[in-house]
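Intended use. Records such as the Cryptochrome/photolyase family protein entry shown here are meant for training and evaluating sequence-to-structure methods. They are not intended to support clinical decisions.
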Amino acid sequence: MRRWLFADQLGPHFLDEPDQPVLLIESKAVFRRRAFHRQKAHLVLSALRHRAAELGGRAVHIKAETYGEGLRRLGEVVEVSAPTSRRARDFVRVQPKVTMLPARGFLTDQDDFAAWADRRRGGMRLDDFYRQARRQHGVLMDGDEPASGRWLIRRPPVRRPPTGLSPPPAPVEDDIDAEVRDDLDRWAAEGIEFAGRDGPRAFPATRREALDREDHFVAERLPRYEGMPSADPWVTHSGLSSALTLGLLDPLPVVRRAERSYRDGQVPLSSVELFARQVLGWRDYLWHLYWYFNTGDPGRTRASGRSIPTWFTELDPAAVPALAGVRDHAWLPYADRDTVLAQPWRRRDLVDWLTRHLVDAQEWSIPVGIPR
């Protein structure tokens, strides 16, 4: 059966067979309804169109005003992995010709997490979930015990951040990117609003680009991967978050590759453990909390706090310097994200703002505790 792929389901692990037919739909209404950062809009459309080009005749690529229009134009029965937002799942459930499959792109099954959480009776600590996930997937385990006998590996303190590291490989824009830029220019002229500044595409839009960035991370950055602030933001970031968000990379193979680098003696355990904790632990943990507590349901989010002011939505860095990074790159190091998350605006509005302005943010990925 033809598999419908959303724009965050673009990797091969979202298909069952190498020759499975695919449906890809561009919904113009997504960008008409809310103002996305120009560079995020470019990345999403570029990734979707590059995937269509890779699939060739196997893919039906429909540019429509809405997803509903795209499905009607196709006129076939299709199946889709469960979407990653509540609104999208609600839409899929009422489509007469769409069968929704279990979610992919995460390591722990939703039913397994719910069963684990129910047993905890409210004590759902991240550390406990992380240890359970390590055991379940056999990551950094020596038999029944964690590698080195400890779950949390503290990296020895360093006096100065590492310097002289090469930057991640920059994507090379092609004709598809030029077409996307022309379309976004035309949409803007038609009245569709975008936030931030346009710029060269800085993040992977294809699986090949994502794998190249993974190669660079494992070889160059993982040995120095640490949680301390640095003038080089990539020291504390893998640079893989947007590729994981788009579904270009499957998280478990990425974690297993990092583990192999430790087993082969190329990378210290402290670096690999920290990376595994971010992907296997924190990323999956946020995903499951989103669904377990219905945090994506507007009716369950707190309405306290102030409205986001105009200067914030216009990305004016005069009051919050971190907004310059959002304006110019649609991305922020986590230290700067904490500054943004600390703003006293209504949680619902802030989550919406972050998902529209950061290339690697989705509704489920915003910590449920904000505002702090």
